[in-house]
Write a structure and sequence with these properties.
The chain is α+β, with helices and mostly antiparallel strands and 101 residues long. The chain has 3 helices and 3 strands; from the N terminus they run H-E-H-H-E-E. The chain has a 3-stranded antiparallel sheet.
């Protein structure tokens, strides 16, 4: 008798879990349809040698980092969003931006 109750309880829990998962998936995760418009992005990277920005690591001589601040501010005013700063051997080499098309 105990074994049957145990099996029925497990079957009930399994069924409830399956039902809950299907309901949560429909509510919490909207599906992306082919006719919906996903945001498309334009992206670019600005390299230090092209803009005269100081490549020093941020921990060194903060007064000489103004070049990168100017790059980020200028591109931000044009609608670009900074997404990544690239470095090589501890030196900042580029700033990468994106903006919606």
């Amino acid at each position: 008798m105990f074994k049957i109750k145990h099996i029925l309880l497990l079957a009930f829990i399994f069924t409830a879990g399956c039902f809950t998962a299907s309901v949560v998936q429909q509510v919490a995760v909207p599906s992306l349809h082919a006719n919906s418009s996903a945001t498309k992005w334009e992206q670019t990277c600005v390299y230090a040698e092209h803009v005269g920005a100081d490549k020093r690591p941020s921990s060194l001589n903060h007064e000489k980092r103004k070049g990168w601040d100017n790059v980020v501010q200028e591109w931000g005013q044009q609608g670009w969003e900074l997404v990544q700063m690239l470095d090589s051997n501890g030196y900042l080499t580029a700033a990468c931006f994106k903006r919606p098309l």
